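FAQ

Q: What does a record look like?
A: Structure on top, sequence underneath. For example:
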């Protein structure tokens, strides 16, 4: 497993929703001179998706080398085909991740762009309109989807660029010798700096050497927490080790607050609620976000550790899919993240222990059955989930 390595002297800005991300990303694409790597899970055929598509085509038209990777399941077969036709005509190099599940069930759930090796964008925001549901683009949300990304400048961009090069090569038709060479190249240690601000790490999850890297980053930070843990996630269904770490932190006096998205997928809601009794009994505060679609995957621990990325706290993200997070050790960035999460929590509904004590046995049994079904499914497809 690759160690989590922090690089110093970065400039990282937190971007809330596509309203902040897309103008910054489009400006960087339009200023590109050399190369662009772009990877996403969902690419919608809407105003946001068309704007990014047209910007990448403009870049290719002025001689920039543009490489685009979209996930077949997230974007859909029809959407991937539409992009392929448009990009082929424009000279954009384009690949689809794992079409028709030819390489198993793993998906790329990452949302990354690197422009000219100078600026990168990493987060949870897909290429789609904030006002429409991720899985039903015809459904308008009651409020813009709540999500985040990070704009990165500085030495960490080189690490992100290298990973994007490797991903592009992996998805292509590599022979055995070239794959071995790529694996050896990935084993080389990444650069480390001293203790200068702003320190950050690019943390990925794959099914080679980084199977547990994102969970490990979380567990290390949770285990070291002294004052507070604030975590916001739409699909909360981590393994036993993760849940136990949160409970132990609360029991030793750390303030632990979870903001969990509900109201999208009833089975996911039931699985998450199956964890509530033990979490609440240990002192963890649980807040449900019902204002709109919560898609943010963010956390802040104590005063100087925070993360933003694509990884949910569930079996799919932590044990199966390809994911990418930024982990930042910086007081100002953490303060900004904390303020955003606390505003989200203010829009949520606090769950009380009595709420579950008074629920019918039928509903409580349903939560347990949902969890057992989910756990069995994850053990079939995601090695390591427990």
């Amino acid at each position: 497993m690759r160690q989590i390595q922090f690089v110093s002297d970065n400039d990282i800005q937190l971007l809330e929703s596509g309203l902040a991300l897309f103008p910054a990303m489009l400006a960087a694409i339009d200023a590109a001179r050399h190369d662009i790597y772009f990877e996403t899970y969902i690419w919608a055929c809407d105003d946001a998706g068309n704007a990014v598509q047209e910007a990448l085509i403009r870049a290719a038209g002025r001689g920039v080398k543009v490489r685009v990777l979209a996930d077949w399941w997230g974007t859909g077969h029809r959407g991937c085909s539409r992009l392929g036709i448009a990009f082929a005509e424009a000279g954009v190099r384009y690949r689809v991740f794992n079409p028709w599940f030819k390489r198993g069930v793993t998906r790329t759930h990452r949302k990354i762009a690197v422009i000219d090796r100078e600026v990168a964008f990493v987060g949870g925001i897909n290429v789609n309109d904030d006002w429409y549901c991720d899985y039903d683009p015809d459904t308008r949300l009651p409020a813009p989807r709540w999500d985040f990304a990070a704009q990165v400048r500085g030495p960490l961009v080189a690490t992100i660029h290298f990973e994007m090069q490797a991903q592009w090569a992996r998805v292509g038709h590599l022979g055995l010798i070239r794959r071995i060479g790529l694996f050896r190249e990935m084993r080389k240690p990444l650069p480390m700096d001293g203790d200068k601000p702003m320190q950050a790490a690019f943390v990925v999850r794959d099914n080679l050497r980084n199977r547990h890297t994102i969970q490990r980053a979380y567990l290390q930070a949770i285990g070291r927490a002294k004052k507070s843990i604030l975590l916001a996630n739409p699909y909360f269904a981590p393994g036993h080790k993760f849940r136990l770490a949160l409970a132990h932190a609360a029991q030793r006096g750390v303030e632990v607050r979870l903001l969990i998205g509900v109201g999208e997928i009833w089975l996911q809601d039931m699985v998450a609620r199956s964890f509530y009794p033990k979490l609440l009994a240990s002192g963890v505060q649980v807040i449900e976000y019902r204002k709109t679609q919560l898609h943010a995957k963010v956390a802040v621990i104590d005063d100087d550790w925070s993360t933003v990325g694509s990884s949910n706290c569930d079996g799919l993200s932590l044990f199966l899919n390809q994911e990418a997070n930024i982990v930042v050790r910086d007081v100002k960035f953490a303060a900004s993240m904390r303020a955003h999460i606390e505003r989200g929590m203010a829009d949520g509904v606090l769950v009380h222990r009595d709420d579950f004590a008074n629920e019918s046995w039928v509903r409580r049994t349903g939560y347990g059955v949902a969890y057992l079904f989910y756990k069995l499914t994850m053990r079939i497809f995601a090695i390591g989930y427990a």
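Q: Is there anything notable about this one?
A: The longest strand covers residues 65-71.
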